[in-house]
């Protein structure tokens, strides 16, 4: 069973962006460009884009007449092309290499094509179980993705530790009933049983 801070869990569920790798520079470029094209305040959009599916962000900010499918394709194509500045989170390679391949998964809001491109860009393995934006009907903060990840690993969600970096992701993990370790500083406060994860 994998351990984190002397506590054993049935499995680890990792978000991807901001948790095993940092793609914030690319995200800012692509989404900033999209926001400008649509006359949306860039800073407001960038403050809300992390941890949620592209289609959900587009629906929220694009207005009632936006073509969600078309804009989602534009975002995906732009993000797949742009891996400049995408880097692994410090210490994550050794951390993941020490895990049994059947004891961890990635649960990301990104489409699978983008997830694979970014993981390869930082030389991280494609896990045996990876839940992406296409696998769920409801994205984070809904718990569906984490529940599905635990199910496909064959473990109980309340015995899993989720590594998350965004408010939407933390809300999804808590709603699922998982334990949560927060990575980075995007989530205000670390109250209760939350811990600021450090892989190195």
Give me the secondary-structure topology.
Blueprint: E1 3-4, E2 7-8, E3 11-14, E4 21-22, H1 24-37, H2 42-46, H3 54-62, H4 68-81, E5 87-88, H5 92-97, E6 104-107, H6 112-121, E7 129-131, H7 144-153, E8 160-164, H8 167-176, E9 179-182
Parallel strand pairs: 3-6, 3-8, 6-7, 8-9
Antiparallel strand pairs: 1-2, 4-5
Task: Please provide a brief summary of the model.
This protein has 200 residues and is of the alpha/beta class. 39% of the residues lie in helices and 14% in strands.
Describe the protein's architecture and organization.
With 200 residues, this protein is an alpha/beta fold. It folds into two domains: 118 residues, Rossmann fold, CATH 3.40.50; 58 residues. The protein has eight helices and nine strands. The strands form three sheets. It has a five-stranded parallel beta sheet with strand order 7-6-3-8-9, with helices on one face. A two-stranded antiparallel sheet has the order 1-2. Strands 4-5 form a two-stranded antiparallel ribbon. α3 packs across α4. The radius of gyration is 16 Å and the shape is globular. The chain starts with a strand and ends in an 18-residue tail after the last strand. The relative contact order is 0.19.
List descriptors.
single chain, 5-stranded parallel beta sheet, Rossmann fold, alpha/beta, 9 strands, 200 residues, 14% strand, two-stranded antiparallel sheet, 39% helix
Proportion of strand residues: 5-15%
Order of helices and strands: EEEEHHHHEHEHEHEHE
Shape: globular
- The CATH topology label of the largest domain is Rossmann fold
Low-confidence stretches: none
| Rg result | 16 Å
Query: In this structure, how is the largest beta sheet organized?
Result: 5 strands, parallel
Helix content: 25-40%
The number of distinct helices, counting runs of at least 4 residues, comes to 8
Number of DSSP strand runs: 9
**Average pLDDT across residues?**
92
Query: What is the domain total for the residues?
Result: 2
Distance between the termini: 20 Å
